[in-house]
Amino acid sequence: MRTALVIGTGLVGTSAALALAGRGIHVHLVDHDAASVRTAAALGAGTDEPPRGRVDLAIVAVPPAHTAAVLAGAMRDGVARGYLDVASVKGGPRRELEALGLDLTPYIGTHPMAGKERSGPLAATADLFEGRPWVLTPTRDTDTEVLNLALELVALCRAVPVVMDADAHDRAVALVSHTPQLISSMVAARLAEADETAVRLCGQGIRDVTRIAASDPRMWVEILSANPGPVADVLAGVAADLEETVTALRGLHSSDEEKRRAGTDAIEDVLRRGNAGRVRVPGKHGAAPAAYETVAVLIGDKPGELAAIFADAGRAGVNIEDVRIEHATGQQAGLVQLMVEPSAAPVLGTALQERGWSIRG
Amino acid sequence: MRTALVIGTGLVGTSAALALAGRGIHVHLVDHDAASVRTAAALGAGTDEPPRGRVDLAIVAVPPAHTAAVLAGAMRDGVARGYLDVASVKGGPRRELEALGLDLTPYIGTHPMAGKERSGPLAATADLFEGRPWVLTPTRDTDTEVLNLALELVALCRAVPVVMDADAHDRAVALVSHTPQLISSMVAARLAEADETAVRLCGQGIRDVTRIAASDPRMWVEILSANPGPVADVLAGVAADLEETVTALRGLHSSDEEKRRAGTDAIEDVLRRGNAGRVRVPGKHGAAPAAYETVAVLIGDKPGELAAIFADAGRAGVNIEDVRIEHATGQQAGLVQLMVEPSAAPVLGTALQERGWSIRG
What is the distance between the alpha carbons of residues A228 and A239, in angstroms, rounded to a whole number? Predict the structure, then answer.
């Protein structure tokens, strides 16, 4: 690939353009918002001049509702050898294109599984896709050359290609992304009307479960509107579990021991199935969930304390894999949790203790 | 308070005993498991010798199902001036004690909102309760002297006392703890049977929503069995939202524009109510959620890199409030996200850039 046209210079389009431009591809940028194109160009994502002749790959990075129309326009104009989109749903755009009677051999639907809380070209980075899955949905009709252009794009963005059927993709994101969003919102919605005293009792569990309930409702209405069927199917499965669990909990009040036993069994069953599902969730960036051990250290809340502790860890030859800091309410102190390989934990604990740090159990 | 009796030397009992013993209280330890008492005593939590005469406060820290029976035994023996339990539900134990016809003036039900993934005396720490809410459920009949003994215990453990009615407490934990657990398990349960390819697409959202689905089913069956009514009530509310959302999603397929509009509105409504609930969740240790800004730095994955970066941050006079490290798959590099006060972010970014660090957007 030597030339590319990026249509839509938002977060995803500009990030892909930055990755391509950074690896020597000549990138042309287009957007209905001229200011957005200028910003992307100023960031080094490419040029706002139109291409002279056909480019190798046209990348359509516009909202799902506009994807098919923009793709169709570009394909009719014959601006590129291959065309792909990056919309978060794949079945709908493909069916829309088919309904328009277009030749779809030069087209491949794709979806990079990367995003950010912020949108727009200013949030873009060349490394947005590094190590993330990038779904490709070729059909039997897809031109091999076009599939290879898409694979080259994924490789240049340092993402991990995953080949799927378009409808299987939509069912998968309904399961792993759209359903968790709605469920998180529903749990958080229960807190909207709760007593202030009740809300004070929130712990880390509900904090994690409701974190994504802070997402932008408009953006999510758009995403969910493009994939309603598969999301409804997954939610219906959750609803069945929920109904059974409410019945089970009510059964625990029964005077009939058989019913109480059945209630306990049903609750244990859903918790066990939850265990089984949870272990399948891959770790960050697709890596296996790492089993680190934690060494907790109490530090003063002032500049230099963290530097000193990491310097001491470095002197002990220990690599810190992850870090958490917890500040106690109203105290000028914090608990630093250093996560290290299990074999390194005793080494680190001893080394820090010898240097006068206050290690917690 | 000068003397205390801790009945039950698990995580919570031993942690409270460590806090009391560390502040000069003479603590006696009892448990049906003699090895557990010896471990707690060896950790410095108190003595395994029985008290000579009446202690000031008896702390019952046994599983919810046994709480009322153990309390009743201790109260009949008259071992203390005041009695409290730390069970995670409060209405049930109180009603059981009432049914036994005991004088409840020397009793107060309490619940420290702190825990750990690990249980048993070896997981105990004197600072387990620091900065955490500790719920007290006095009634009009509770002796003031006993309430003050309980408040003294909470202060010695450096927790934050919160006074609630026993049933209001049970409704609150159903909302902020028991419901999130079940819902997290139900979302994770959907993954148990999913295709491997679908599971590969999991991102940070579902990772957070399903984190607590890894919890111990047996422990949770016990907790939920002690509080079935309030949990069923909250779940029924979620079920109503869920049913409405499934109908809304199905409506988006309708040819009737009115129905499609109603579907979109219903989905936006649940997402907005989720926003409203989420902002009420307090930050760690009850502090207001802090609005930090992130400075992201690419580092090599080797000892000394973190030390160097924190040393440079310290030289710039910037206090790091929180840290996250993301490792890219199969790469000897990581992205360190340094969270600082908004005013400090540009200072830190410039200082690190000047010292040659690779800052990411």
Answer: 16
N residues, chain B: 361
| CB proximity B328 to A under 8 Å | yes
Distance in angstroms (rounded) separating the CA atoms of residues A79 and A283: 40
Residues 6+ apart with CB under 8 A from B331: A131, B301
**Of B164, B255, B320, B236, nearest to A301 (Cα)?**
B320
Distance CA A214, CA A248 (A): 31
Q: Which residue in chain B has the smallest CA separation from A340?
A: B303
Nearest-CA distance A54 → chain B (Å): 32
- Please state, for a pLDDT cut of 70, what percent of chain B lies above it: 92
CB crowding B263-288: b at 16 or more within 10 Å, else e = bbebbbbbbbbbbebbebbbebbbee
SS3 content of chain A, % helix, strand, coil (to 5): 50, 15, 30
Tally of CB atoms within 10 A around A274: 30
Asked if A289 reaches chain B (Cβ–Cβ under 8 Å), the answer is no
Question: Is the CATH number 1.10.3660.10 carried by domain B170-278?
Answer: yes
Query: Comparing C-alpha atoms, which of B73, B238, B78, B97 is closest to residue B166?
Result: B97
If phi over 0 gives left and psi between -120 and 50 gives alpha, with beta otherwise, what is residue B330? left
Give the CA angle between residues B139, B71, B149 to the nearest 5°: 55
Domain B293-360, CATH class in plain words: alpha beta
Closest partner residue to B210 (CB to CB) among A177, A204, A277 is A277
Q: ipTM of this predicted complex?
A: 0.75
The CATH fold assigned to A3-164 is Rossmann fold (3.40.50)
Structure confidence at residue B289 as a pLDDT band (50, 70, 90): very low
Record: contact A182-B284, CB cut-off 8 A: no
Residue A299 has pLDDT above 70, yes or no: yes
Report the distance separating Cα B85 and Cα B57, nearest Å. Answer: 11
Q: Where are the domains of chain B?
A: 3-164, 170-278, 293-360
